[in-house]
Amino acid sequence: MHRRAAALAVPLTAIALAVSSCGSIPEEWKTPAFLRMNSEELDPRLPDVTGEVGEEPQITFPDDEPPDEEISGIVSKGSGEDILLGADDLLIANVVQYQWTGPGEGEQMEGQSSYEAGAPDLIPMAEMPEYITDTLVSQPLGSRAVYVFPPLSQEEQEQAQAMGQEAPQGASVLVIDLMERYSQGAVVPGEQTTDGGDGLPTVTQDGHSQPEIEIPDTDAPEDLEVVPLIEGKGAEVEQGQQVIVQYTGVRWEADDNGNREVFDSTWSRGGAPFDTVIGDGAVIEGWDEGIVGSKVGDRLLLVVPGDMAYGQTEEEAGGGPVGTLVFVVDVLGAYDNPPPPEPEEAEEAEEAEEAEASEDEETEE
Predict the structure, then answer these.
(1) Could you tell me if residue 345 is inside a domain?
(2) DSSP annotation of 342
(3) Are residues 179 and 219 both part of a single domain?
(4) pLDDT tens for each residue of 145-204
(5) d(CA 330, CA 165)
(6) CATH number, position 91
(7) Residues 125 and 20 in one domain
(8) Alpha-carbon distance 106 to 365, whole Å?
(9) CA angle at residue 346 from 343 to 90, to 5 degrees?
(10) Same domain for 308 and 235?
(11) Residues 25 and 141 in one domain
(12) What is the pLDDT of residues 21-55, one digit of tens each?
């Protein structure tokens, strides 16, 4: 379904975590599990974090030097005990990062607050390290977690600077608010009011299983067709947002054996929801035009002509499916993206990426 690979990754606040540029927590930094999760008693060395979950937190740093080991805990527990975060969920979180520079002293890191950006972080839990997920898994939505990571060593600071990254001063503090989650096999609620048909494909779906798509024995329509099979009641999807979807796609034309095999589907990846920027060319044109303006909670039947997909010929498609494509798309969620970085920031980020790539090549050699 991608026309090209989109730069969709967990944001810096959720992957950097101000730890070593090597990307791992040293064993001597780790604390026993009972101090990090499922404990009623919080480690007293954690900063005091107050305020409502879902709003910018207020933080008070202890009148002590930052600890020399990683510590974490749940400082506010959500009330939704029936909606717990799973190890394979796609987490929607608000994330704020701070520097703890000395006894009673610290400050928020510039540009490291999803509250200020007005856009949450989308965090695939399965891609996160255990020292993050251990504290979060099985916590109810509406909870707030706090992490403290020790100051970087001199060697780690030099590594970060060599990669073009600004090494944080002092310890790093990360606050994560658990706002929403999408589990494997998630589908939109409600019953289909139509299964399509009338010259278009028909769609049936049994519970949370992969939809079955039946193509009629007629010519494919020449124009994009968008049919809501389930009409959602959520907000309208806007251009430039990140959408979270389940989807299945087949070709309109049968193969030489008369079959129409699924060429791409989230169900073939365990039903893990897929997220992408919509309306900005990150995906095929038929998706951009068909999903922008839909509503969260919609199940859409999209019939996409080849010139709005990968192409009408194998040469045009470049290995992708040829001709008219048929998708069933469940629009699970839609979230704003943070504003693009200023030109100077974008240039610095590019230089950092190039420096990191160069270092990786040298390591391999």
Answers:
(1) no
(2) P
(3) no
(4) 999 999 887 887 778 778 777 777 789 999 999 999 999 999 999 999 999 988 999 999
(5) 39
(6) 3.10.50.40
(7) yes
(8) 40
(9) 130
(10) yes
(11) yes
(12) 333 444 443 443 334 444 457 999 999 999 999 99
Instruction: Write out the residue range of the structural domain in which residue 281 sits.
Output: 202-335
- The rounded distance, in Å, linking the Cα atoms of 82 and 117 is 30
Percentages helix, strand, coil for the chain, rounded to the nearest 5?
20, 30, 50
Domain boundary residue, one of 131, 154, 183: 183
How far apart, in whole angstroms, are the C-alpha atoms of residue 254 and residue 193?
27
Torsion angle of the four alpha carbons 26, 28, 29, 34, in this order, in degrees rounded to the nearest 10: 120
Per DSSP, 103 falls in state T
* Residues 19 and 113 occupy one common structural domain: yes
Q: Phi then psi for 160, rounded to 5 degrees?
A: -65, -45
Query: Based on the structure, what is the number of domains in the chain?
Result: 2
Question: How far apart, in whole angstroms, are the C-alpha atoms of residue 188 and residue 286?
Answer: 21
In sequence order, what are the beta bridge partners of 145?
A: 74, 176
One-letter amino acid identity for 5?
A
**Which tokens belong to 332?**
């699970």
Give residue 108's Cα distance to chain centre: 23
